[in-house]
Every structure is written in structure tokens, then in C-alpha cells.
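Late entry, written up from scratch paper. The run itself happened at the end of the previous shift, but nothing got recorded in the book at the time, so transcribing now.
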Amino acid sequence: DDLMIRLNLGQKMTVHRGEPADGIEWAEMDGPDGYRIEVGIPWTSMGLESPRPFFGLDIHVNDNDLDRRESKLSWYSRRDNAYQTPSAFGTVAIAE
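Output as recorded:
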């Protein structure tokens, strides 16, 4: 039930799970100090009928203007291979 979504500025979204995840929407906006990305992910795209009270999540932002990564920011895990190890993700609690 793991899902990896890759968003590359100016390119299309790719989903790594063995099957496409329908319903995911995203938009990118340029601003004076950089860019902003908004993502909408339906629960059904993650194989869920309704939200769970807790789930794992991590977000990584890579700066890769050339042929190699120049820097990286992450929301939770500092591991470079967290996408391969969901146990390294942070935990999100859904509030009612």
C-alpha cells in the first residue's frame, strides 16, 4: 500500500506503485522568490475508501538544475532512500 509520487517542475507527474493512481491533481506556480506546488490526493488513489486516523508521509524537495542534485530539503526523514523505506516516514494524524 505504499505510494511514491514524483512531481518535476514543468514536466508531468509520475506515480511509482505498479499501477497508475487516478484522481491526483497538482499545480505549480512561479513566484518572486521561487515556486509553490499544490497537490490533491484522493484517499482512493492510495487504495483507501476513507481516511485512516494515522498514516506515514514524507516530502522531499530536490534541487537538481543540472545533471546532479545540488541540495535537498525533507519534511521528516533525512535518509536519502526514505522512499524505499516507508518506516522512515513521519506520521500524520487526521483530525476530525
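The radius of gyration is 14 Å.
(Scratch paper discarded after transcription.)
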